Amino acid sequence: MDDWLKDSDEIGPSWLTVDLAIFTLRDDQLMVLLVERGLDPFHGMPAMPGGYVQKNETLRDGALRELAEEAGIDGSRLHLEQLGAYADPGRDPRGRVVTVAYLALGPHLPAPVGGTDAARAFWAPVAHLEDGTLDLAFDHRAILTEALEEVRRKIEYTAAATAFCAETFTLRDLRTVYQVIWGRQLDPSNFRRKILNTTGFVQPTGDQWLPPTGRPAALYRRGQAWLLNPPLLRATTTVQRS
Predict the structure, then answer these.
(1) Is 242 within a domain?
(2) What CATH number did the domain enclosing 197 receive?
(3) Residue 92 belongs to a domain
(4) Are the CB atoms for 49 and 65 separated by under 8 Å?
(5) Are 111 and 49 in contact (CB under 8 A)?
(6) In a shared domain, residues 111 and 201
(7) How much is the pTM?
(8) Which of 56, 66, 90, 179 gets the highest tally of CB atoms within 10 A of its CB?
(9) Domain that holds residue 42
(10) Residue where one domain finishes, among candidates 90, 125, 156
(11) What is the rounded distance in angstroms from the CA atom of residue 35 to the CA atom of residue 43?
(12) Are 152 and 165 within one domain?
């Protein structure tokens, strides 16, 4: 096999990178983390944070390192999972570069600080991704579009929505996550019933949040279940009517 590889014209050099699709809620908006590229190719253009995987480094470790280096964010407590591999031969003008994209979710993540080859790092509204306002480097628009739909689907079938909440939260906080990500208003009573009827989704802490005005609200934390049964489907969740 080594001789075949040596003599084959079909096998060329390739490189492995990791890129991160990182979403958070800030001021009741769904935001995605971007960096401004400080080097060619695509110098000055927005892109996903990421870079080459180092020798003897796992993909996950590479993703966490790039996040810290390019945006100054500690990703050790984020919900982090592989989204997929992207290997179109023409996706990078420098040569054959295969990237493994990671999906990361976190609650109200801090303002990023650009570093290494990122001229700056910033949060951008997902709405700007969807309306075409953002012109992204490489194939990052396609990757982020796929990542966004994965988030919308994932919160139907798993407890991933709690990754956007603090350690303890009210049901209103959780409903806000669904409303922002799905882009629709949800009936509070129907939402509460569905959440509390989904075994293991959330568990009460026994404490309450005391607002400046109005009634106290019970505090919850994520339960033991990851897969939701029954799922909280977009198509069947009642929309609040004005």
Answers:
(1) no
(2) 1.10.10.10
(3) yes
(4) no
(5) no
(6) no
(7) 0.92
(8) 66
(9) 2-156
(10) 156
(11) 11
(12) no
Give me the residue label for tokens 């509204």: 125
147 and 231 part of one domain: no
Assess contact for 204 and 218: CB atoms under 8 A: yes
Asked if residue 241 belongs to a domain, the reply is: no
How sure is the predictor about 236, in pLDDT bands with cuts at 50, 70 and 90?
A: low
User: Confidence band (pLDDT; 50, 70, 90) for 241?
Assistant: very low
At 99-129, the pLDDT tens digits run 999 999 999 999 999 998 899 999 999 999 9
What is the rounded average pLDDT of the residues 52-56?
95
Q: Establish if 116 belongs to a structural domain.
A: yes
Query: Domains in the chain: how many in total?
Result: 2
Note whether 32 and 75 are within 8 A (CB): no
